[in-house]
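Technical annex, item 7. During the second reporting period the consortium partners agreed on a shared format for inverse folding records so that results from different sites could be compared directly. Each record opens with the tokenized structure and is followed by the designed sequence. A conforming record, contributed by the partner at site C, is shown below for reference.
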């Protein structure tokens, strides 16, 4: 069966991903930019401000809010060290009580707060998160640079996690072998694969573990 052609910014079947975080990936990012085929101008350079909702009891559902929209991805499996994630839900504010009960708080794997209204605004939801003992809202600013290497969607980004500066670099695709080839070419094969969920938990102290550099 022919493999699916990936296009940046378009929906595909669930992808496998390698990502790592640290202080310095300048050499790897340079190689990524040189190996890259031309990509759409809209992904050359992008900035965004996002809110990630961290849960002490959950490591399989990744929840973020950007531009007033909530996006939850769920972990599927790991194959050859690469993680596969799948969209779980997308929602907008104001958000319905039923969505919070059936989708959002079950994804956090925490005790459900008392929900007395039929809909909740963004500010009301964030207040619920702040008052919950097992949840934390984390501000993440991303400055991203997009590439395409070996038909894998790649990115180098400078990120601020509650003001703490890190860099991250990744390759993702529906095809595992294409990712492996890319990691070998740009010098990432021996580094730890860390998703945003795990990286943010390290920064805010929910996980006591260092980064690769």
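Designed sequence (site C submission):
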């Amino acid at each position: 069966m022919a493999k699916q052609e990936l296009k940046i910014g378009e929906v595909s079947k669930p992808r496998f991903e390698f990502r790592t975080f640290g202080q310095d990936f300048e050499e790897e990012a340079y190689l990524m930019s040189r190996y890259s085929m031309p990509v759409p101008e809209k992904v050359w350079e992008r900035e965004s401000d996002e809110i990630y909702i961290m849960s002490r009891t959950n490591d399989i559902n990744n929840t973020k809010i950007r531009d007033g929209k909530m996006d939850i991805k769920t972990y599927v499996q790991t194959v050859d060290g690469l993680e596969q994630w799948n969209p779980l839900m997308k929602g907008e504010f104001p958000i319905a009580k039923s969505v919070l009960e059936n989708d959002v708080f079950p994804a956090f794997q925490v005790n459900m707060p008392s929900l007395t209204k039929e809909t909740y605004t963004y500010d009301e939801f964030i207040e619920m998160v702040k008052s919950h003992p097992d949840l934390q809202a984390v501000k993440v600013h991303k400055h991203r640079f997009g590439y395409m290497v070996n038909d894998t969607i790649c990115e180098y980004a400078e990120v601020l996690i509650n003001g703490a500066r890190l860099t991250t670099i990744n390759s993702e695709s529906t095809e595992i072998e294409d990712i492996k080839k890319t990691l070998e070419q740009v010098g990432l094969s021996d580094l730890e694969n860390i998703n945003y969920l795990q990286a943010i938990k390290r920064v805010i102290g929910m996980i006591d573990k260092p980064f690769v550099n």
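The chain has one domain: 16-204. The mean pLDDT is 94. All partners now use this format for quarterly exchanges.
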